[in-house]
Amino acid sequence: MRMLVCTLLVIATAVPAFAADRFVGTWKMNAQKSSGPEIDTDGMLVAVDEGGMQSITVTGKAPDGTSFKTQFSVPMHGGQGKIVEAPYNGVRAKAFTASTSDITFTTDNNPGMHVRSVLSEDGKVMTTTRQIISGPAKPGTYTDVWEKE
Q1: What domains can you pick out in the chain, each with its CATH number?
Q2: Which residues fall within 8 angstroms of residue 46, CB to CB, at 6 or more apart?
Q3: How far apart are CA 82 and CA 72, in angstroms?
Q4: In this structure, is the dihedral angle defined by the CA atoms of residues 125, 31, 144 and 83, taken in order, positive or negative?
Q5: Which alpha helices (DSSP H) does the chain contain, by range?
Q6: Which residues of 30-47 are buried (b: 16+ CB within 10 A; e: fewer)?
Q7: 49: closest CA among 3, 18, 71?
Q8: To the nearest whole percent, how much of the chain has pLDDT over 70?
Q9: How far apart are CA 38 and CA 9, in angstroms?
Q10: The pLDDT value given to residue 39
Q11: Prediction pTM value
């Protein structure tokens, strides 16, 4: 019994670390494979593992040519995150797996956008589905394809 508990504890701590490694890196948006009202040909996403916290920065240009930046961090095991710079004032994540992440942005505790990211088997392509409920972008469901640099 003790061995089983120890084995489960090792697995439980190893899975989030493995998940973090696959999402970490610099990603470039492939505008030709993406959809939505804001196709961004200069879109970059940088994800960094900061000891159990995933720190994410997204930069690019809006359709009108103005630059934008969104920066936030979320716990890899799930829970409330921290907004550094974004059009929303709250962020929460479900526990990351080796190939998925689910992040919800809120404004005054009301859902604004849900983002589900799925990594390809080889970890070189991340497909992100954005469901925009409210906020600065047009409501709808959009797909962004990111390629690892």
Answers
A1: 2-148 (2.40.128.20)
A2: 25, 26, 27, 56, 57, 58
A3: 6
A4: positive
A5: 2-23
A6: ebeebebebebeebebeb
A7: 18
A8: 83
A9: 43
A10: 59
A11: 0.81
